Amino acid sequence: MPRTRAVESGMVDLGSEMAELCGRLSAVPGGPGRVLQFVAAEAGEGTSTVAREFARFAAQEARRGVWLVELDLFRGEHYAAINADPAYYGALGEPTRASPNESSFFSVDPKLTGVDSRPWPDVRYLDAYPVGEKRWWITRFRREALKPGQDVRILNTPAYWNTLRAHADYVVIDAPALARSPAALAIAPLADANVLVVSGDQRDVASAQRLKVALGEAGGRCAGMVFNRAPAAPPRFLSQFLP
Q1: Domain assignment of residue 196, given as a range
Q2: What is the mean pLDDT of the chain?
Q3: What's residue 14's pLDDT?
Q4: Per-residue model confidence as pLDDT tens digits over 187-229
Q5: Long-range pairs for 23-32 at CB < 8 Å and ≥24 separation?
Q6: Domain CATH number, residue 51
Q7: Which residues of 41-57 are buried (b: 16+ CB within 10 A; e: fewer)?
Q8: For the chain, how far is it from start to end, CA to CA, in angstroms?
Q9: Any domain includes 185
């Protein structure tokens, strides 16, 4: 796959930064996969771009593949981005269920009842799409399947993530910014590492420090900070660790 692509008016080469990031956050060979959450304090920092590029790069060497899970269920960012640029990412394959069993990281309530009079499993609302050579998958929440009055909440339970650990080298979670949603705090203690994303033109990192504190108070471990300077210049990944 190409390492350099056009992004708006600039050219961004992500290869060396992603190699460094994978090296720092790699799993033990033969061990369970690593669950990594990417999150920013404010919207617009480029978290989805960083998470997607990390997943794409990691999939090139992953033996068991990589899962990219979008925690902002109603957004559909990765499905839209990859579907719009198959020449770069690879074509999306046919959807399949996004869990090897019935575990899920969210709950839809009230439950719908199937033809067998049993509640419709939450995981049925989530599809997984293979990308390119099927070495990585992305998730898409089927919001069109929701009925009026149904609500969705993120669960603070490890079952889903533990299931994916057995089937992937990396499970990459793209979390919504903390300013928009507290979802990242629910997942923080369940991830092996939380990576903070900060736009490179953001001179004041006080909000990132507050995010680090919030993640720590929730029981999460912060691996470091990603300075994302796209599109004007290549981002510097983990160039500064938070104290």
Answers
A1: 11-87+135-140+156-240
A2: 84
A3: 55
A4: 999 999 999 998 866 666 788 889 999 999 999 999 888 877 5
A5: 24/223, 24/224, 24/238, 25/170, 25/193, 25/195, 25/223, 27/169, 27/170, 32/165, 32/166
A6: 3.40.50.300
A7: bbeebbbbbbbbbbbbb
A8: 36
A9: yes
